[in-house]
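Write out the 3D structure for:
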Amino acid sequence: MPPRLDERIWSLFKRRWQQTFTYWSVFFSFGLCIAFLGPTILDLRCQTTSTLQQITWVFFSQQFALLVGSSLGGLLKKTLIPSLSALLSCTLIISLVFAIIPLCHQVVPLSVVMALAGLSMGVIDTIANLQLVKLYQKDSAIFLQTLHFFIGLGALVSPLVADPFLADDNCVLGTNWTSNSSSSSDLQHLRSSMGAHGAALHNTSQYPLHTEGEVITRVSYAFWIMALINLPVPMIVIALMYHESVLPCSSNSPRLLGKDSGSSTSPSVDSGHGSTFGCCNPAKLQGRPATFFLLHALGGAILFINDGIIGSYAGFVYTYAVSPPLLMHHKTAGCLDSIFWASITVGRLAFIYLSYKYEASRLLTFSLVGVILVQCLLMIFYTSSAFLFIGTCVLGLCISSVFPSMLAYTEDILDYKGCATTVLVTSASTGEMMLQLLVGSVIHSHGSYAFLLCCTIASFLGLCLFLLFLYVQHIHRKSESDSSHSTDMEEKPKIGGSVSQDPLRN
């Protein structure tokens, strides 16, 4: 990278480090929430004395609320609610949710609490991405890579915190527990098969889990520890609110009336971005070329598929590993999900540096082609347990940068009008939920090998959409260039005419 560019980005970061670090921190809260439910779901089943079919509604409530929250996060900027106030509320809600979960002894209250957490996660997802794009615009790629690294960091921390407090055996002791209860290995198998989002839940009737008896679980301590771990995040948001003078106790609180969070850093940052939904104003949409709308739709479709692959692979790789022909031991197969998320985290850390050196379009092409190659190799060597581990690791590395790179690239093409971030974030959340349901139903009907086939087809479709995206982007920039050229030609006679009339007026 040229030294001047390096110095300029570093100078931007030094001026805006507090805002940037705050948005990174709230994404750590996002990561804490996204990964704890899978490992703790059996203990929560015991706590609520419910069946597996009943407890899985908790997964659905969280995922659906996350989708709603992603859309709501974009609308918040259209109201009087400042984004920092929304982030403060959401991070406090997440800590409160962690503290309240141990007090929920029925499925319905637990589902409501988890929906509240999902809503907060969705709002955080949209606002943090929007604000970083707003702060750095053409230089936002590296900071978005770091932002999504913090999701992986939080997703690694929460299972580590929960693991020491999980029950080794059935945590509901019935009167006839010793005769028909599930063994520790069976419960471990069931826990892993539910995946990151409780995806693979078919054929669970073979595990007789009690719903009546003495509840023995220590998972409450894990949630209280996570509540304490998350507590510094709202404190960081409050510190930024004080710095931005949006608190009643701050010295220049009138700044709240005219400026949004982060806008005081540099007047030039706000110019060109405008309101989050300014580009969606019907009056401003008139005259927009069709390519403007196509780029939004294609970018959203690419991330719909990308996040759908991530969710499906994390949710079903264990089920695939323990099924024929691999028949991997459940403890060994249980490491695959952790390896996948760890490789995504490491990949995002590596792409922070790569974003310095290469354009987003090149990184996206490399990533999407790499995802296809890995998926094809997994299908070819489908009988190799060793290659499944290698492929899982490489897949996580390749797919890790698609979301932040696509977000930065799309906003750059559309001149940071603001709508792209909300469309892309919402599409990604939708894909993560919908493709898991689709892949799960296909596995249930056609067997575990269909899992690899579905992910491979989705990968090819994602690359085809990206190639179409590049073609539409080329047409879009050409049409904008022609439009600006014709506008300049129309203005020149007016300027000349006004000059020629000046002597007559004199």
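Strands lie at 172-173, 214-215.
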